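Could you join me in thinking about how sequence relates to backbone shape in a protein? To get us started, please write out a protein record for me. Would you write everything just below, so we can both look at the same thing?
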Amino acid sequence: MNRALLIKNWREGGNNYILKGNSESKWIGYQESVIKGMIAKFGDGFNIVIWSNESDENDYYCIPFTRIKHLFVETNKTSGKYPNRWTSTIVDHRLLMKGNNDLSVDITEYYSKSILPVSNIEIIDDHYIENAKAEISIRLGQSKFRKGVLTNFHNKCSLTGIRESNLIVASHIVPWAQNKSSRGDYRNGICFYVELDSLFDKGYFSLNNDLMVIITERLYDLSDNLRTILLDLKGKQLSQPKDSIKEEYLEYHREEILIK
């Protein structure tokens, strides 16, 4: 069962507005009366929970309203038959108000993540309690890691200089799941623009110990557009972090992640 269904909805006394999205388009409709009621009761201290697949326990988003509240303004409401609501879709972990790319927020970090204290979740057994506590611990650790990485790289993408917080990612050099001892070390992270994070994570480029970009040797097996992007990145120098990145992490990425 989808774990979003175990979280207390506002009707049950919880501080969560739980919505079922269309399974294909992730279309969601938000009632103005509920949003205004939540704001009146909780201020900004509530969550928007969106799920679609009941059989997939991890297929849900738990989003702090503060992260997306700027989208819930009068000018973004729907018109026509149902004027007193807002609508959105989710595409590639981006919430698009009215399906508009210009009104979007990256919600990747809120996918399959409980940001709620255990007291706000209906507990079904001791095993679930332990799982909930573990997830909260992981989330807190990831938040601390992100803060450390972004601070180390002056809160901007190390290659593009982009500063918008919703467009930059604390990218692990050694993957989170690979090495428990390094997962929380901010020196195992680099601040990248979201598109570069994906390319780095999938091994299309790596870095030498001087933090210069190395690209995959399989360049000519790739599409023309991706090849152009990678050639433009080749040899570029990352901005210098406040604290040095550990060379052992970079060596791991070159040996194990970079596509050869």
In short: The chain is about 25% helix and 20% strand. Residues 149-257 form one domain. The two ends are 40 Å apart (CA to CA). The chain has two domains: 3-122, 149-257.
